Amino acid sequence: MIETVLADGEAVVVRPLGLADRGALAEGYRRLSPESRYQRFWVRTGEIIGDRMLNRLLMQDPGNHALWAVMDGAREYPGVGAASFWRSSEDPEEAEFSCTVLDADQRRGVGTLLLAVLWLEARKVGIRRFIGYTMPENVSAIRWMRDTGAEAEWDGYKVIFRWYLESLDAIPPTDAGIALAERLAEFSEALWQGA
Asked: Known SUPFAM superfamilies for this protein (predicted)?
């Protein structure tokens, strides 16, 4: 668990999620706008996340899967956003990174904060690259991924991004890139000791 503040000074806690967080994760999914659910899961669904997806997300597999959330205990619903990585079975040095932030909390540095935490968690277990996917119409996600140093390619259907986790020099001097570098420095001692 990490106590920190968002860019606007709001105090938050960043922590891993587990099976006890099932109800909170389901509520966070319900609170997403239909467009945000579509951009994250690529299907038009209702407000209910299925048991199978909840089980898959919440079943921690140390070294292969991690799920962390940003929480604000002062709110009625404390969830702000969550992100996960899944190690590739074909290439154990690569993991898929995904992130979801509640609509009202987007553009507050939540995604960058979560990227930094999972970046360090992944490095600790030997993951060297994150891969992320987004639809071509998700312009804000594309901009954020590039601004945090990810390389992009287009496969004719989706945009594929890769962050090289050992190459901090590749993080650009954009606002998001600077924020990422600062978060990596802030959390490195707590999360990456001896890695």
From this structure: Acyl-CoA N-acyltransferases (Nat)
Among 99, 49, 116, 105, residue whose Cα is nearest residue 80: 105
- Among residues 158, 85, 159, 98, the alpha carbon closest in space to that of 128 is found at 85
In a 13 Å sphere around the CA of 100, the CA atoms on its Cβ side amount to 23
Encode burial over 146-169: b for 16+ CB neighbours within 10 A, e otherwise.
Answer: bbbbbeeeeeeeebbbbbebeeee
Q: What is the pLDDT of residues 3-54, one digit of tens each?
A: 999 989 999 999 999 888 998 988 888 888 888 877 776 666 665 667 888 8
Residues 6+ apart with CB under 8 A from 138: 39, 159
CA separation for the pair 76, 172 (Å, rounded): 37
- Does an H or E element contain 160, and which? strand 159-164
- Report the number of distinct structural domains present in the chain: 1
Residues contacting 145, CB < 8 A, separation 6+? 132, 134, 152, 159, 161
Q: Does residue 123 carry a pLDDT above 50?
A: yes
Structural domain containing residue 101: 2-191
**Residue recorded with tokens 């390619």:** 153
Tokens of 93: 């040095």
Query: Do 79 and 102 meet the contact criterion of CB atoms below 8 Å apart?
Result: yes
pLDDT at 69: 95
